[in-house]
Structures are given as C-alpha cells and as structure tokens.
Amino acid sequence: MSTKQILVIDNECYIQEIIQIALETISGWQVFTAGSGREGLAMAEQSQPDAILLDVMMPDMDGLTTFAKLQENNKTQAIPVILLTAKVQAADQQRYRDLGVKATLSKPFDPLQLPTQISDVLGWAT
C-alpha cells in the first residue's frame, strides 16, 4: 500500500504545523502545506494528493472559492476535499455537502483524532 498524501491549505502556519505533525507521526502520511488558496491550487495540480484539508476562512481567496476552482479543473476535481472551519452549523454543513465537499471538521480539532476522522470520512483502512 502506498503512503497517502495530504495537502493542507490554511493561512495559519501553526495549524499547518499541527496537522502535519499529527498526520505524519500518527499515520505516516506525507503532508504538503500551502498558505493560501492560490498556492494550494497550484500544489494540488502539481502533487495530485489523495485528499485536501481546506480552511474555509482565508484572506484573498477563501476556502469555498478555492474549492470551486479545484472543481473547475479537470486535474483536481476528483481529489476529495475536507473543510476545516471554526463556524460549523448544520445548514452550512448541508450546503457544503451539496457542493461536493466530503466532510466538514470543526476547529479547534483534536490532532490525535484527526487521522482517524479523515480515514473514516474517506473510507481508508486504518
């Protein structure tokens, strides 16, 4: 089985770092990070990760705009996206699912549970 590759798109460096440490240490996954939607779009196309963790609230290009651009690109539209957000309401979650987002995880999150949550959402064996 090959190592899973995850792209984290979040403008907060410390969030990127926490996620990267948790996923690499606990699951042995390879983690790439991007600090903006634009950087994330380029990295997603280039690295073709197995999944993307995408922050909703970012300056310049927010997560939903970034997600829409991922969906418009034939090279990235099949990559599953999990949103990370501090504002999780049932109506928003349903709207995100309707757009094609795999799941929404709330911030703050438990880094020790994150690999299991991602695996459960995406149907990956742990």
From TrEMBL:
One of its GO terms (biological process) is phosphorelay signal transduction system. Residues 5-122 form the Response regulatory domain. Signal peptide: none annotated. Keywords: Phosphoprotein. The modification 4-aspartylphosphate is found at residue 55. PROSITE patterns: RESPONSE_REGULATORY. The keyword Calcium does not apply. This is Alkaline phosphatase synthesis transcriptional regulatory protein PhoP. InterPro entries: Bact_response_regulator (IPR050595), CheY-like_superfamily (IPR011006), Sig_transdc_resp-reg_receiver (IPR001789).
